[in-house]
Amino acid sequence: MRHRQRTLKLGRTRAHRDLMLANLACSLIEHHRIKTTVAKAKALRPFVEKLVTKARRGTIHDRRIVSAHLKENSRRVKNAVAKLFAEIGPSNATRPGGYTRIVKLGPRMSDSAPMAFIEFVEFAANGETAPISTPEAKPAKKPAAKKAPAKGSAKAEPKAATAEADSAEEKKPARKPRAKKTEKKDDDK
pTM, whole model, 2 decimals? Predict the structure, then answer.
């Protein structure tokens, strides 16, 4: 009889769920606050709190355990582990637990999934987390006009080359016009 992989919590296999939680934990450690669904936030909370408890102790054994839980396979994870042990662990040294909090938001527009912020309490209390801006609040970016340097100077040549490269990136290639359709004559009726 063949065994099927069971889907467990969050509708994912165990391996997929573990990697997803490790990825969310790295993002939370990097940014101190992330926006996700309520179900993922509730699953992430005990995962991250156990990591912070180990970071508070700060031994090399705890560092290796945290690295294993975060599936250390990239520079991003190494930086997250370093930040966890250097900043987040010591800032929560006096707190007996409850390092994160979940702030519920409204439903997502596309699929009505309930959304929430999950954030570290210490960093939110100190005001170190920047509020996440909405797309409407962002001002429209206007491209800055760049002046071309004088052609005679020796320093102007590298600047001119970079200015040409920047202007080439800003300009999009022109579209080819569509071919016109030939009109059928009404005589063929």
Answer: 0.63
